[in-house]
Amino acid sequence: MSGPQPIAIGLNAVIVAVTAEVPRILTVRAPATKPPLDALPFGPLEPATDRTLDRALRRWVGEQTGLGLGYVEQLYTFGDRERDPREGRGGSRLVSVAYLALVHERAASTAGAEWRDWYEFFPWEDWRRGRPPVLEEAIEPALERWAESAPDAAARRERRERADIAFGLRGVGWDGDRVLERYELLYEAELVEEARRDRAGRRAAAPSSPLLPSRAMVLDHRRILATALGRLRGKLKYRPVVFELLPPAFTLLQLQRVVEALAGVRLHKQNFRRLVETGGLVEGTGRQDLETGGRPAELFSFRREVLRERPAPGVGVPYVRRV
Amino acid sequence: MSGPQPIAIGLNAVIVAVTAEVPRILTVRAPATKPPLDALPFGPLEPATDRTLDRALRRWVGEQTGLGLGYVEQLYTFGDRERDPREGRGGSRLVSVAYLALVHERAASTAGAEWRDWYEFFPWEDWRRGRPPVLEEAIEPALERWAESAPDAAARRERRERADIAFGLRGVGWDGDRVLERYELLYEAELVEEARRDRAGRRAAAPSSPLLPSRAMVLDHRRILATALGRLRGKLKYRPVVFELLPPAFTLLQLQRVVEALAGVRLHKQNFRRLVETGGLVEGTGRQDLETGGRPAELFSFRREVLRERPAPGVGVPYVRRV
DNA sequence: CTGGTTATGCTCACGATGAGCATTGAGTTG
DNA sequence: CAACTCAATGCTCATCGTGAGCATAACCAG
After folding, report:
1. Is A239 buried (19+), middle (13-18) or exposed (0-12) by CB count in 10 A?
2. Which nucleotide lies at the shortest CA–C1' distance from B298?
3. Tally of CA atoms within 13 A in the half-sphere of A50 that contains its CB
4. Chain A residue numbers touching B53 (CB-CB < 8 A)
5. Are residues A320 and A127 in contact, defined by beta-carbon separation less than 8 angstroms?
6. What are φ and ψ of residue B131, in 5° steps?
């Protein structure tokens, strides 16, 4: 079944927490990279002892970081040959199954690992303070140059089309879920470090735009991260996953801030309240939070029964309309 | 990285077509099963030559069936130890990446393979002629016995709760997307052949209900199939994937029938027309289909531009309301 | 007590959706 | 050829979810 080149299989974890309105992911320092690079936690599947892939993940995350994972979801399996430059030169082909895990704010015992702001890797994804300036200043002109540099008119048109859809340009609205599409486009246009690194040694560089200011990762880990953010944003809308990131009792504003942090957009406060309250997602506890700075807020908790009542309960994050 | 027991990796394909209002999947005959069993097409990843997993899939599907795949999407990676009974007894651990592929009606050159009605495997999923009788006649009472047989009151309550949500019982509505959840529940309750087969040799049988009338598959292939149907039903709503299953020009009723076949529900004709027309999903070609049996229908084609205009264009399949 | 701050309540306009009636245009039938 | 059948197509209406904003309540700091 396996050819002359052997296959190795491993698991990657995107572990997410939200603290102080910042979505964070757990990263480790990659062992032997010259400018030290972030990597996603990685661990093996022990075929003899791990009954399932999930369990393998929980096992080694526990061993490596002491973290007990709650919500865990399989994301995607990455198996491109080019993902690891050592492959094809004697190394074995590495297939990696990526998982998304959500943990509560507090669970933060992380030996040897570091929490990083998700948006350091994707600055163009955070629209909470309006449209990120990097779009207008760097991404739009660079993508335009990239489209312009296509060999023929049809290819140029196709590139512009893709850029418009991914980044919501020229009358197309911004779709928060297309995180992966955007990252892959930037990779193709060689605007992220990984693209140039992977290309090194192959064909000569096209006349290229400067790299975007953003944090790179080893191998294709930033692609995995983009997959995770996109999936999480999509899932927010039809499954009550936010609550995995919150303490058992919270104010509605805290809830809203976590959703906003992940969705990367600001929401209308009163409508958000109406949505989660009339949607039956939360129930008041009667207790209050007096630390709000204004009128005390009631503490709410997640209403599990909502799963019985509505087929797709989630916090409807609106699309950003045409610009 | 791999322990004493080696890991093998392979790809499974769920290849879907819709003909004559029947959603069909391509199956092969499993080599050595005593009552001959259906299996999903399976092929290896050739680590030395297959650049990506997608390409590996397309390659061996082409080699085995002559079928050229269009739309292809990764579904899920299955790696439970129990998926293959030979594992742990000298066999290697088999991890399999499952893909969903959609092909046009006509592309049907299938040497050695057979197209099977998807609903033979999941008779409870087809609500087009109303609520499937098997629910009331067999599933509901069997699930009730299963819940009843739980060790304590809390477990009984939890089992009923899960059954209610999955199958839309006691005031919960039927959610077409929960195909996998339903199959897994039936597996746990040992109402499908696979569950009894997998259990054979382990603990003694609980007092069990008769098997449901439905077609079984090898290993965990029916679970993969359930994953595929659920994913496809979900995707219909926010991505224009139906068109992958249709010829370039079609009448609106043909389109509707394909959606209904997959969603497993009947739709309101006029509203469906309004949805796809005002949603900009299709455009008239000016040509007509005279074979309708009534007034001739205009032939439509998919409007690719819709991807530019709307963030989540799909055919909104309604939930079935509380019963 | 006053202004600042946040929580919470409520209204209004609008577009999307579910349901059904009405009409059109082909083939079929006496 | 008029009546009839069968779908396709056009249109209306009630309802509901959603975006936006005004208004009021309840705490704190000065």
Report:
1. middle
2. D8
3. 26
4. 77, 79-80, 95
5. yes
6. -65, 125
Give DSSP secondary structure letters for B129-154.
TBS-HHIIIIIHHHHHHHHHTSSSHH
Query: Which residues does B310 contact at the CB level (< 8 Å), separation at least 6?
Result: B279, B280
Residues of chain B positioned with their CB less than 8 A from the CB of A45? 2, 7, 79, 93, 95
> Is B7 in contact with A9 (Cβ distance < 8 A)?
yes
3-state secondary structure of B287: strand
Backbone angles phi, psi at B57, to 5 degrees: -60, -50
CA distance B142 to B145: 5
CA atom of A290 to C1′ atom of D29, Å:
15
Q: Which of A77, A306, A307, A310 to mutate to test the interface with B (most CBs of B within 10 A)?
A: A77
Contact B82 A51 (CB under 8 A): yes
Distances (CA, A) of A90 to A7, A9, B132: 12, 16, 56
- pLDDT tens, chain B, 323 aa long: 444 467 888 999 999 999 989 999 999 988 777 778 999 999 999 888 889 999 999 999 988 888 889 899 999 999 887 666 555 455 678 899 999 999 986 655 666 788 999 999 999 999 999 999 999 999 999 999 999 999 999 999 999 999 999 999 988 888 999 999 999 999 999 999 999 888 776 665 555 788 999 999 998 999 999 999 999 999 999 899 999 999 999 999 999 999 999 999 999 999 999 999 998 999 999 898 877 788 899 999 999 888 887 777 777 677 665 44
Cβ-based contacts of A175 with chain B (< 8 Å): 311-312
List the single protein residue with the shortest CA to C1' distance from C17.
B271
Dig out the tokens for A285 from the structure: 């506890």
Helical pair A153-167 and A140-148, crossing angle rounded to 10 deg: 160
Chain C nucleotides close to protein (CB under 7 A) are: 4-11, 16-21, 24-27
The DSSP H or E segment spanning A54 is helix A53-65
Bridge partners, residue A72, by sequence? A101
The structure's pTM equals 0.90
Tokens of B39: 């299996």
Considering only CA atoms, which of B90, B104, B237 is closest in space to residue B175? B237
CA of B274 to C1' of D3 (A): 32
**CB–CB contact A308 B8 (8 Å):** no
Residue type for position B140: E
**CB pair distance less than 8 Å for A51 and B81:** yes
**CA–CA gap between residue B54 and residue B75 (Å, rounded):** 11
Three-state SS string over A101-131 comes to: EECCCCCCCCCCEEEEEHHHHCHHHCCCCCC
Long-range contacts of B54-63 (CB under 8 A, 24+ apart): B54/B99, B56/B11, B57/B11, B57/B13, B57/B99, B57/B101, B60/B11, B61/B13, B61/B15, B61/B101
